[in-house]
């Protein structure tokens, strides 16, 4: 066999294999030779130069027109195995197509040859789509690219011509045109999107499953979702079509998740993204679409409870829940659901949706959702209590005065004080509630307003946590809340009159936890700044002494030491204080502490 192989290769190189008259006269010998050549090209070790490939291809294309059916099958098999690309040879393609009805083997070989020819175009379109995705610079550049005098966008539009809806090659064109549209660098593309592209996508989605696989339908749904995401007119146009809802409603159970049905999961992801885009902008559309899906919220929340639920599907579910939650009516249904497990999940989602940049905040306030969240703080479910505390803390972060007043009205400081003594109050819940108080006190003007009405209760909360057996994370929150309180003008005055507050600050300055020490330093710093007439009142000797007598590993902490030196530059003004105040400093401890203060803070 090795000798035969060598001889065939030599004959091909010399160009004599097919020119031999004896070979041309004996068709059976030609069949045998083609059978052997087809076997040779299947061998991974077989190699041929480009010149030999070109010569063999040209010669075989001529032989196809004169050979028998079996001979044609061998020729096509050789071309298929050599992965010859005939996309530029129109005559060759036309001659091959004439034999497509002869046999299934010929059809198989021809399909492989055409698929190989199309792969270059598919890869090219995918490459273009990847370049265009959210890249304005690439879109501007590619919008001016031409091939044979025809602009690239025109080529992409031609790929969506009639009769070619369901070829895989169209998806690269679909995504590319959608990316062009979303970036808004083509002025005349919108009519094409409305009249051609969206109908094409809908036709792909409506095709029978035996003609278009679910994976391709899922891609079509995702393309449509991205296309209409920020366009109310397109959302309105698409929402009348029932195809997306039909795709979603095909599965009435969640067995496809447990069975890891890849196609069904992809179909759900695509349809969920599409539904969330359709209902994301208009309340009337949202009500009409959701009215056609029975218990959709419960169905989605069930998905999230499954451990097997893949991340991509969870992301699509969260995205859809976000669009649904923009509806006051839908939100009311979810938060009043009798199933605690669902409420736990949706409350976890709300923790992130109530931040100051979320569009959901205004909806929650309109619905008077704060009362419901405050009720959750006393629920039997630990997860629900924790999520409620998270929601309130996140909602208060950088909140405006109106929202802060609403929170204080729903959860007064006195209620927070009562919660500290409840049996259900775990460290995590208390820490988040104290984080809420810290956020409420983060702005000086509102701090003064809040302290004018609730000073006694708030100071009692501070002392209750700092004196009690609370976790260090809770005490750290209180120290920072205390530091925030000191930024208010009137609030600072009330703190300065409370000796117990200074005792607690002094206590935590000497704490073994460096984080608590730093928080205590922040308290002292905010009490010192800005320096008012009565600033020296807070220079109780024990605070200064405790602060600067920190020894051992703690003082070796570069971060803490830098914080102390940076924040206590104000101590240099001690030389302006009356002499007996400085004398009081000398009376505490040894003189080395005072000299340490002088060397690091006064002499600068």
Describe this protein's structure.
Helices cover 70% and strands 1% of the residues. The protein has a two-stranded antiparallel ribbon with strand order 1-2. It contains 36 helices and two strands. Among the domains are: 2-132; 135-274. Helix 10 (169-183) packs antiparallel against helix 11, helix 18 packs antiparallel against helix 19 and helix 27 (427-440) runs parallel beside helix 29 (472-485). It has 604 residues and is mainly alpha-helical.
Distance between the termini: 95 Å
What would the average pLDDT be, to the nearest integer?
Answer: 71
Mass-distribution shape: elongated
Helical segment count = 36
Beta-strand segment tally: 2
Tell me the fraction of residues in β-strands, as a range.
under 5%
- Helix-residue proportion: over 70%
User: What low-confidence regions span 5 or more consecutive residues with pLDDT below 50?
Assistant: 1-6, 12-21, 530-546, 548-558, 563-604
Computed structural class: mainly alpha
Largest sheet: 2 strands, antiparallel
Order of strands side by side in the largest beta sheet? 1-2
Give me the Rg, rounded: 38 Å
């Amino acid at each position: 066999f090795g000798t035969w192989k060598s001889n065939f290769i030599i004959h091909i190189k010399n160009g004599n294999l097919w020119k031999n008259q004896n070979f041309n006269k004996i068709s059976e010998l030609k069949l045998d030779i083609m059978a052997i050549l087809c076997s040779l090209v299947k061998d991974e070790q077989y190699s041929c130069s480009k010149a030999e490939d070109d010569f063999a291809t040209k010669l075989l294309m001529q032989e196809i027109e004169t050979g028998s059916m079996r001979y044609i099958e061998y020729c096509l098999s050789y071309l298929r195995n050599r992965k010859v690309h005939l996309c530029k040879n129109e005559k060759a393609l036309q001659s091959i197509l004439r034999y497509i009805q002869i046999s299934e083997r010929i059809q198989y070989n021809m399909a492989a040859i055409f698929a190989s020819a199309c792969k270059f175009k598919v890869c090219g379109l995918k490459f273009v789509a990847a370049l265009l995705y959210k890249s304005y610079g690439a879109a501007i550049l590619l919008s001016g690219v031409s091939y044979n005098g025809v602009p690239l966008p025109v080529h992409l539009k031609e790929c969506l011509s009639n009769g070619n809806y369901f070829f895989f090659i169209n998806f690269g064109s679909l995504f590319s045109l959608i990316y062009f549209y979303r970036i808004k660098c083509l002025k005349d593309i919108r009519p094409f999107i409305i009249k051609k592209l969206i109908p094409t996508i809908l036709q792909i989605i409506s095709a029978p499953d035996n003609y278009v696989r679910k994976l391709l339908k899922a891609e079509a749904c995702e393309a449509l979702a991205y296309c209409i995401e920020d366009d109310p007119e397109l959302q309105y146009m698409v929402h009348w079509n029932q195809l997306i809802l039909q795709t979603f409603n095909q599965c009435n159970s969640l067995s496809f998740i447990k069975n890891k049905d890849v196609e069904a999961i992809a179909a759900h992801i695509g349809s969920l993204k599409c539904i969330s885009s359709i209902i994301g902008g208009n309340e009337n559309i949202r009500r009409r679409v959701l009215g056609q899906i029975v218990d959709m919220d419960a169905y989605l929340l069930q998905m999230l409870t499954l451990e097997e639920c893949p991340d991509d599907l969870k992301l699509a579910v969260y995205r859809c829940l976000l669009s649904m939650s923009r509806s006051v009516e839908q939100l009311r249904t979810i938060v009043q659901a009798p199933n605690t497990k669902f409420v736990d999940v949706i409350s976890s989602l709300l923790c992130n949706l109530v931040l100051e940049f979320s569009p959901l905040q205004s909806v929650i306030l309109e619905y008077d959702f704060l009362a419901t969240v405050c009720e959750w703080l006393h629920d039997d479910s630990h997860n629900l209590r924790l999520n409620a505390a998270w929601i309130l803390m996140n909602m208060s972060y950088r909140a405006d005065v109106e929202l802060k007043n609403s929170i204080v009205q729903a959860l007064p400081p006195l209620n927070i004080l009562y919660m500290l003594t409840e049996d259900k109050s775990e460290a995590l819940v208390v820490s988040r509630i104290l984080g809420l108080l810290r956020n409420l006190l983060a702005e000086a003007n509102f701090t003064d307003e809040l302290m004018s009405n609730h000073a006694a209760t708030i100071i009692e909360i501070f002392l209750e946590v700092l004196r009690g057996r609370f976790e260090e994370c809770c005490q750290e929150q209180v120290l920072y809340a205390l530091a925030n309180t000191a930024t208010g003008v009137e609030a600072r005055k009330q703190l300065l009159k409370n000796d117990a507050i200074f005792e607690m600050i002094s206590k935590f300055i000497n704490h073994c936890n460096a984080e608590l020490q730093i928080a205590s330093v922040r308290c002292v710093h905010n009490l010192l700044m800005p320096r008012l007439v009565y600033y020296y009142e807070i220079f109780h000797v024990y605070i200064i002494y405790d602060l600067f007598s920190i020894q051992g590993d703690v003082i070796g902490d570069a971060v803490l030491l830098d914080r102390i030196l940076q924040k206590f530059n104000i101590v240099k003004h001690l030389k302006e204080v009356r002499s007996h105040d400085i004398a009081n400093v000398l009376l505490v401890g040894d003189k080395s502490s005072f000299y340490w203060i002088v060397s690091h803070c006064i002499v600068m």
